[in-house]
């Protein structure tokens, strides 16, 4: 039975890239699928040339081509990414990291509820955190551009590299915090809820911008053992 050559495999990779599949792991999945289909066609009809067989296999993906496959893989990897974040958040609920979570919460709560001008102290803390977040995000972005290689990126790798941008949306509520009357936080339940939210958001920022990126190579080896 006819088999695909190394040249054919390279052509299949080029074909997926030409059809807007930018992630190497998704390309590999599609190349494997196309290769199996082409060789199955050759088993039934050895006289069929490569381009004809490829055209037949590609048409099986429908009018949207590889788009649905890419979208499905993005959903799967996004779920995996958020699972990583949930696992890290869970670690901050267990000893010894729970002491860090409690210390942060008590710091925010004490500032808001017990100190006369604590509201302004928390506002300053949030402002400093915001500027630090933007600085670290910008620094990381420059490093990624500097270290960018010619190889095609992996889907989960791209999601991790962009992860810091996700946390920026959590600052939307911060602007509301700035316009609220400080007297609101004299209410115990409001102070408790606000302290909890600020603590969780701060931990989320630390996880997505520091912890997960530091573990990126280990994560990619676990997810893509045959590639990385």
In short:
By secondary structure, this protein is an all-alpha fold.
Count helical runs. 11
General form: elongated
Q: How many beta-strand runs?
A: 0
Order of helices and strands: HHHHHHHHHHH
Q: Spans with pLDDT under 50 lasting ≥5 residues? A: none
Rg, Å, rounded = 25 Å
Number of domains: 2
Q: Tell me roughly what share of residues is in helical segments.
A: over 70%
Query: How many angstroms separate the termini?
Result: 31 Å
Strand content: under 5%
Question: What would you say this structure looks like, in words?
Answer:
The chain has 228 residues and is mostly helical. It folds into two domains: 6-65; 95-223. Helices cover 75% and strands 0% of the residues. Helix 2 crosses helix 3 (50-59) and helix 6 packs parallel to helix 10. The two termini are 31 Å apart. The mean pLDDT is 84. The chain crosses the membrane at residues 95-113, 119-138, 159-176, 188-212. Keywords: Membrane, Transmembrane, Transmembrane helix.
């Amino acid at each position: 039975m006819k088999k695909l050559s190394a040249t054919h495999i390279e052509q299949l990779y080029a074909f997926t890239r030409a059809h807007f599949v930018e992630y190497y792991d998704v390309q590999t999945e599609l190349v494997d699928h196309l290769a199996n289909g082409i060789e199955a066609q050759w088993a039934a009809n050895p006289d069929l040339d490569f381009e004809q067989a490829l055209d037949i296999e590609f048409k099986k993906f429908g009018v949207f081509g590889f788009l649905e496959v890419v979208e499905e893989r993005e959903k799967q990897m996004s779920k995996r990414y958020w699972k990583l974040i949930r696992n890290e958040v869970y670690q901050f609920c267990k000893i010894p990291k729970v002491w860090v979570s409690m210390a942060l919460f008590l710091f925010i709560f004490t500032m808001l509820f017990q100190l006369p001008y604590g509201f302004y102290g928390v506002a300053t803390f949030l402002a400093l955190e915001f500027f630090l977040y933007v600085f670290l995000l910008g620094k990381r972005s420059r490093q990624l551009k500097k270290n960018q290689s010619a190889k095609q990126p992996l889907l989960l790798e791209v999601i991790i590299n962009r992860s810091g941008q996700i946390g920026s949306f959590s600052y939307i509520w911060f602007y509301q915090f700035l316009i609220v009357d400080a007297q609101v936080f004299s209410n115990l339940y409001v102070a408790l809820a606000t302290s909890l939210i600020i603590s969780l958001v701060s931990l989320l920022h630390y996880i997505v911008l520091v912890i997960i990126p530091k573990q990126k190579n280990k994560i990619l080896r676990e997810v893509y053992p045959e590639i990385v």
